[in-house]
RNA sequence: GCGGCUAUAGUUUAGUGGUAAAACUCCGGGUUGUGGUCCCGGCAUCGAGAGUUCAAUUCUCUCUAGCCGCCCCA
């Protein structure tokens, strides 16, 4: 190993060999098909962004310690995008006047984070992002959460397989205000709340009382009437959750401890969890970010959306036996050549098949036909046809169905149609 | 950033203080116009470096990498 280059991919990132990418592509195809039904359009952008895009907009720890940031030769600070939402906000702000709101957009970007890889967490992953931009009303929140749920169902998941936890940053902010917490103190409290489910109750109480004399969470649960703002936000959130339940998301629940890590959320926040105890990870996370676009100097543009990582999602599908296989565009026909001299004619014949839509693999080796058949089997190609002097002379071929071993004789010109009818 | 475990052929694994075994894969041959069986042969400086020893793949240390926790979470 010392004198050769390593064949391993860089730490925490993956190679996608064709069989691997076929699985990813099958997953993405399902995303695209489902989102198309809801009128969502796909966009994309470069993974390189100005570092300042993330400063003070994402979360300090993430930016300082968990991004790939470097200085380019022109002395610009550059960051590999750790998430797509700031890019979306930038793109929306950049063409604010030309874009017809609302925007229903989605993307499947690769995003990067600099941290130690472990189960379900890598340094690069693909993340489906779905956003509805320009609608402040809770109809937008409902649509976005329904889509998240519908995506899972499109893969065959049942409502018992996952749970949709919903909360509201506006509600939490109102509760903090009612408890006398604002600014930094409120932020610290939210951070603590985020960890509550993993903490010992006594430890939480101890930490909480040092920040907040009165627990805002208690106000949310028992004394919403203490502040009109708080009562209003709680009512609004419960209405939204009720609407979700009535409209196809029967497994939506209110969870007052859900906060999400990003500072830019302003309203509803939600996460979808696998209910299988073996895979207790958050699958989707999202929320409303009504002030992000305005950071670019425009008028505020309300927006709500979510992100979902391919690694945890594939784990979910696998756990529940729902992973689509995907053939990855394996060729339909292996065109064998009795001798190397037959290759040009075989390619020419293959051209006529390709022109009619067939996926054809032409042998380029000098292997025997027997070995070529073995090769076809190994590649998972279903049909084999030898093309040489005999076939040209007779204008017929013998097509071998490798799965069964049967052979069919047929005229050359019928081959495309035969391929289309499958095995 | 902290901790635990692991590292032997392309892959998955066995094994030993006296330079390694198997299965599958791959390559070649038996078998140069039609596969899946079978048979034969080939493919490993045992992660890197240092130390102990007559001798290290094996023991020790350092490094590197991978996996798994913690932290944090997109």
Percentage of residues assigned to helices: 25-40%
State the CATH class of the largest domain: Alpha Beta
The general outline is: elongated
Largest sheet: 9 strands, mixed
Query: How would you name the oligomeric state of the polypeptide chains in this document?
Result: single chain
Report strand %. 15-25%
CATH homologous superfamily descriptor of the largest domain? Bira Bifunctional Protein, Domain 2
How many DSSP E strands? 17
Number of helices: 14
As for the number of domains, it is 2
Protein traits:
423 residues; alpha+beta; BirA Bifunctional Protein, domain 2; Rossmann fold; nine-stranded mixed sheet; five-stranded mixed sheet; 14 helices; 17 strands; 38% helix; RNA-binding
What is the secondary structure topology, with strand pairs?
Elements: H1 18-37, E1 41-42, E2 48-50, H2 60-65, E3 68-71, E4 77-80, H3 85-94, E5 103-107, E6 110-112, E7 124-133, H4 138-154, E8 162-168, H5 169-178, H6 183-195, H7 201-211, H8 216-222, H9 228-246, E9 252-254, E10 268-274, E11 282-288, E12 303-309, H10 310-319, E13 333-336, H11 343-355, E14 360-362, H12 369-379, E15 383-386, H13 389-394, E16 396-401, E17 407-411, H14 415-420
Helix pairs in contact: 1-4, 4-9, 5-8, 5-9, 6-7
The structure holds one RNA strand of 74 nucleotides.
């Amino acid at each position: 190993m010392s004198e050769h280059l390593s064949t391993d991919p860089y730490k925490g990132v993956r190679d996608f060999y064709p069989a691997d990418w076929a699985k990813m592509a099958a997953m993405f195809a399902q995303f695209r098909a489902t989102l198309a039904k809801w009128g969502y359009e796909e966009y994309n952008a470069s993974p390189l962004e100005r570092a300042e895009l993330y400063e003070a907009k994402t979360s300090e720890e993430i930016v300082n310690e968990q991004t790939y940031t470097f200085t380019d030769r022109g002395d610009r600070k550059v960051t590999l995008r750790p998430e797509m939402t700031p890019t979306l906000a930038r793109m929306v702000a950049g063409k604010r006047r030309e874009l017809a709101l609302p925007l229903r957009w989605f993307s499947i970007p690769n995003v990067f984070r600099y941290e130690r890889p472990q189960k379900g967490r890598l340094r690069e992953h693909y993340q489906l992002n779905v956003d509805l931009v320009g609608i402040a009303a809770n109809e937008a929140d409902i649509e976005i959460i329904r889509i998240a749920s519908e995506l899972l169902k499109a893969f065959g998941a049942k409502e018992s397989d996952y749970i949709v936890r919903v909360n509201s940053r506006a509600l939490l902010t109102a509760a903090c205000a009612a408890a006398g917490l604002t600014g930094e103190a409120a932020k610290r409290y939210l951070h603590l709340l985020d960890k509550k489910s993993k903490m010992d109750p006594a430890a939480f109480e101890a930490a909480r009382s040092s920040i907040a004399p009165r627990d805002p969470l208690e106000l949310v649960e028992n004394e919403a009437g203490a502040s009109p703002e708080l009562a209003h936000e709680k009512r609004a959130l419960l209405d939204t959750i009720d609407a979700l339940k009535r409209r196809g998301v029967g497994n939506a629940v209110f969870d007052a401890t859900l906060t999400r890590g990003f500072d830019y959320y302003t309203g509803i926040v939600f996460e979808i969890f696998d209910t299988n105890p073996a895979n207790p990870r958050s699958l989707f996370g999202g929320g409303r970010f009504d002030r992000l676009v305005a950071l670019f100097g425009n008028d505020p543009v309300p927006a709500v959306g979510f992100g979902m990582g391919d690694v945890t999602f594939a784990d979910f599908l696998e756990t529940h036996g729902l992973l689509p296989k995907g053939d990855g565009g394996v060729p339909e026909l292996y065109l064998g050549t009795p001798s190397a001299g037959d290759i040009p004619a075989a390619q020419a014949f293959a051209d006529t098949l390709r022109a009619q839509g067939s996926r054809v693999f032409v042998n380029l080796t000098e292997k025997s036909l027997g070995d070529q058949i073995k090769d076809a089997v190994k590649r998972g190609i279903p049909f084999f046809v030898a093309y040489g002097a005999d076939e040209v002379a007779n204008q017929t071929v013998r097509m071998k169905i490798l799965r069964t071993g049967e052979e069919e004789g047929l005229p050359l010109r019928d081959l495309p149609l035969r391929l289309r009818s499958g095995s």
